Each structure stands twice: as C-alpha cells, then as structure tokens.
Amino acid sequence: MNHRIYNFNAGPATLPLLVLEAIREEFLDYKGSGMSIIEVSHRSKWFDDVMEDTSARIKRLMKLGNDFHVLFLQGGASMQFCMVPMNLLPEGRSADYVNTGTWATKAIKEAQILGKKVNVAASSEDKNFSYIPRDISYTPDAAYVHITSNNTIKGTQWAAFPDTKGVPLIGDMSSDILSRSFDPSPFGLIYAGAQKNLGPAGATLVIVRDDMLKRVPKGLPSMLKYTTFVEKNSMYNTPPCFAIYAIQLVLKWLEETVGGVEKMETINQEKAALLYKALDKSGFYSGTAEKGSRSLMNVTFRLPSEDLEKRFVQKALENGLTGLKGHRSVGGCRASIYNSMPVNGVKALVEFMETFARRNG
Ligand SMILES: Cc1ncc(COP(=O)(O)O)c(C=O)c1O
Question: Rounded to whole angstroms, how far apart are CA atoms 335 and 333?
C-alpha cells in the first residue's frame, strides 16, 4: 500500500496519482522499446512523438492560434527574466513592468542588469505586495508590459489581465498556467517553470507569438535566442526529456480525466472558496492578501503568533498534510492548491484547520 500524503508545497508540487502510476507502469519498457523514456534518444521516433503530442496538447488546452510557438527550454522561469528583455526589448526602447512581488522584482532586476530601460508602471510594494495594482502608468510606445499572473509567495493573482491597448503582454505564469481559461491573443510571450501546474522541475514552457520573433537580435548566443528553439522545434540541444514526458502525461490527465481547462477552473474555484471561507469565518486565521486580489493557487495566511504557526505546520504534518510553511522570505503559512491537489485534500486541510483553531484558539 502506498503512503501518499496531501502535499501543499509551492513547487516542486503534488502531481496527479494517475500520472505517477503511468510513469511507473511504463518506466522500464517504454512502448515496447525495451528501454526507459529516459534512455531513448531525443532524436528517436518515441521522443519525437512525446514532443509533438505535448505541444499539441498545450495548443488545444490553451486555445492557441497558429501564430503561437510552444517551446520547452531549460534554466527555469528565472532564465526568462533575462531572455525576455534580451530578445524582445530593442535598444532605444523601454518596457513596462508591474511589480507585484519577489518574482516580478527579480524580472525587473535582470532587465536592469542588461542595461535595458525599465519603467515600473505600477507596484504594490507600499502594502507589502498584498494586492494587485489597479492604476498602471503605461509608457507610450513601450516594447511590452510584463506581469506576473500569480504571485506564488504573496498569494495574489490577477483576476483579469490589464488592457494594454495593443502593447504585447508578457506573462510569467509559472504558478497558474492552465489553471483557468483566458484569451491568449494579447500576449506576446508567456512563460512558466514546469514544477507547479505542469510537471516536474527541469523544463520551462515558453509560448511565443510569431510577430515577436522579428525583434530577436542577431548577435545573441544561440542558446539564449528564442528563434534557435523555434527553428529546431525545442531540440537545438538535448531537451529535458523526462520532464517533457511527464508534462505530456499531466496534460493528458488534464484533457482526458479532468475534461479541460474550463472544468479545471471550476474545480480550482471550488477548492479556493472552501479554504478562504474557512479562513474568513475562523477569527483565528487571517488571510494576508486583499480580498479582491486573492490567488486561487496559493492561499497565504497567518495565525495569532509565530509559535502557533510552527505548531500548526508540525501538527498538520502529523495529520498527513505537508508543505504548509510560508515562503522563507515572508513566514506565515501557505497552502498551494495547484491543479493536481484534489478537492478532498483541501477538505482534509479545512477540517484540520478547524480542529486546530478549536484546540488552540
Ligand atoms: C511566479 C514565479 N516566477 C518565477 C519563479 C522561478 O522559477 P524557477 O525556479 O523555475 O526559476 C517562481 C518559482 O517559484 C515563481 O513562482
């Protein structure tokens, strides 16, 4: 009997049991090859099929038009903090960034290291990044507007994306990709580290609109140019084969077992509602994000004291609930309830929270 617990870690994060079982099932002999998928050549028919099917599933699930390229890169979402301005912010122009927390701050810093002109068009730093800014001072003729769709550490999320009047949006969607449906057409580029909603760490999904590729400067090193990966179908060099294969299985689960992104979104809303309702009625826990900016993926909260928070995390673990400690930079508690967290996991957490509050309140 497997010992599986509910895992609320922010990433790497829980994955569907069906996916883990499928990996186990075919691990020693992948589709009659007599080899594991981590042993076959990335130039083989087996891996070609994985790559093609994974990209096709992303396109279907996100309803991407033919003007979008789906790429799998390495270096994490953090690599995109520099690749985006290197490739898409031409000399003499500036880009708008909305600063909603640690990851956006890092994206801004990397662009600045490159000597690029960055305009912080809005920031929620004044209130410890507890909200999504509404007033944004766009620069006329900005090369792009960069946002972080979901702020993993602070537990805030854009409920609707800003209208940039035709200026391409760039979205760091590391922690909410495929969790809800949206119109991708205003986005020039979307990126996401895989290790939250997509699969294991090691691959970074990049979705780039064709017209953006005209901006890529010739002088960049091959490995840092989007065009290199577009031309070679993400196989200029050896791709992160295992991670991409696992992503394929997660996407298959999302399409065929869950029933698509709209269904997933309804389930995600249900899970988040359960948890926020428990927080709000307790008088013991307090949510740290402003109500209108709350994330459906990362629910951040505090207890009356740090001692109680430590005890909460410890007792939760004893009850089969792990990963509830807040990010080391902010403290408190955080429950990451990505796509793969089942509703029953959230119900178990809510039940535990109610008992803990009764005993310690
Ligand atoms: C929103 C967001 N952006 C970027 C990152 C950095 O991702 P990576 O570790 O893949 O570089 C994270 C990691 O948690 C994140 O949550």
Answer: 7
pLDDT tens digits, 27-74: 999 999 999 999 999 999 999 999 999 999 999 999 999 999 999 999
Nearest Cα to Cα of residue 81 among 175, 185, 192, 222: 192
Q: How far is CA 240 from CA 85, 116, 203, 250, in A?
A: 24, 30, 6, 16
Residues touching ligand 1 (Cβ under 6 Å) are 11, 76-78, 103, 148, 152, 172, 174-175, 193
The answer to whether 81 and 110 are in contact (CB under 8 A) is yes
Strand, coil or helix: what is 45?
Answer: helix
DSSP state of 138: P
CA of 75 to the centre of ligand 1 (A): 11
Residue 294 to residue 359: CA distance in whole angstroms: 27
Taking the CA of residue 76 as reference, the ligand 1 atom at the shortest distance is 10
Answer whether 355's CB lies under 8 Å from 40's CB. Answer: no
Sign of CA dihedral 121, 124, 74, 221: positive
Q: Which of 96, 172, 176, 325 is catalytic?
A: 172
- Rounded Cα gap, residues 183 and 218, in angstroms: 31
pLDDT tens figures, 192-230: 999 999 999 999 999 999 999 999 999 999 999 999 999
Nearest to 264 by CA among 21, 272, 113: 272
